[in-house]
TrEMBL record:
SUPFAM superfamilies per record: Tubby C-terminal domain-like
Gene Ontology MF terms: phospholipid scramblase activity
InterPro entries: Scramblase (IPR005552), Tubby-like_C (IPR025659)
Homology family: Belongs to the phospholipid scramblase family.
Keywords linked to the UniProt accession: Calcium, Lipoprotein, Palmitate
Organism of derivation: Pristionchus fissidentatus
Name by which UniProt lists this protein: Phospholipid scramblase
Cofactor: Ca(2+)
Biological role: May mediate accelerated ATP-independent bidirectional transbilayer migration of phospholipids upon binding calcium ions that results in a loss of phospholipid asymmetry in the plasma membrane.
Pfam families on file: Scramblase
Gene Ontology CC entries for this record: plasma membrane
Length: 254
């Protein structure tokens, strides 16, 4: 999907010779912040049918970089209606010319924990993000490189301040705070009128472009985990599913 009319498209920066950067990730080379904005789906707002999610990705100057579109087979669409935000998902992320840059896959979160795989280009692992929670810890995201080596962590904040203000998810390098993913509070009226969430990301500009790519995917994952089924009272209750239905949903990595 192309940027909206009148939007400015980010100009690809000059990359030093000899750098190993997957095609299309050059846009991430110089940036230290980004915005991930969900697109409003009127059908979902009016019908409560869980439609595929869509996100626009911008740099800190508001210039368009990527468009992320959830891709669903008929079975995956039915899974979305049954288990909602706990479904496995697949996203294709394209640039302003419609070229596929990277893909995102998440396993089903029916048993609390889940893993996300990012490929850039398609078929080549770019990085991973693993979400784990325990009775003692609400949740933590571990960002890993293409070799599954841990790089960064994102501890999840308390549920107490979940939906009435900006909500920050700190980006940690060991014990050092190096950035954040912040879900922007739209206000009461906007929250009532739209089912969309906006995220502001900050991270060290020196990070590898593959890690920055995984962080963009993490904003979408956080949306699913903390906000996807909590936008209105009709979708605020966790959907239940039988063990037989769980087994039939399969694995989105396959």
């Amino acid at each position: 999907n192309l940027p909206c009319p009148g939007e400015t498209v980010m100009i690809m920066p000059t990359i030093p010779m000899g750098m190993d950067i997957p095609p299309g990730l050059e846009y991430l080379y110089t940036i230290g912040s980004a915005h991930v904005q969900q697109k409003t789906d009127m059908l979902e707002m009016m019908s409560k049918i869980d439609t595929p999610n869509k996100y626009m990705i911008y740099n800190d100057q508001g210039h368009f970089i990527y468009y992320a579109q959830e891709v669903q087979s008929q079975g995956e669409f039915m899974a979305a209606q049954v288990v909602g935000d706990s479904r496995g998902f697949r996203f294709q992320v394209t640039d302003a010319l419609g070229r596929l840059v990277f893909t995102i896959y998440r396993t089903s979160k029916l048993w609390t924990n889940c893993e996300m795989l990012i490929e850039a280009p398609a078929g080549c692992p770019c990085g991973y993000a693993s979400f784990q929670s325990t009775p003692m810890c609400r949740g933590i995201l571990t960002i890993m490189d293409q070799f599954r080596q841990p790089q960064l962590t994102i501890p999840f904040p308390s549920e107490r301040d979940a939906h009435l203000s900006d909500r920050g998810y700190p980006l940690m390098l060991g014990g050092l705070l190096v950035g954040a993913i912040v879900r922007k509070w739209p206000g009461f009226m906007a929250q009532a009128m739209t089912n969309c969430d906006n995220f502001a990301l900050t991270f060290p500009p020196s990070l590898d472009v593959r890690t920055k790519c995984v962080l963009l995917a993490c904003a979408i994952l956080i949306d699913f985990i903390d906000f996807e089924d909590k936008r209105d009272v009709t979708r605020g209750k966790r959907k239940t599913i039988s063990p037989q239905a769980r087994a039939s949903l399969g694995n989105p990595y396959q």
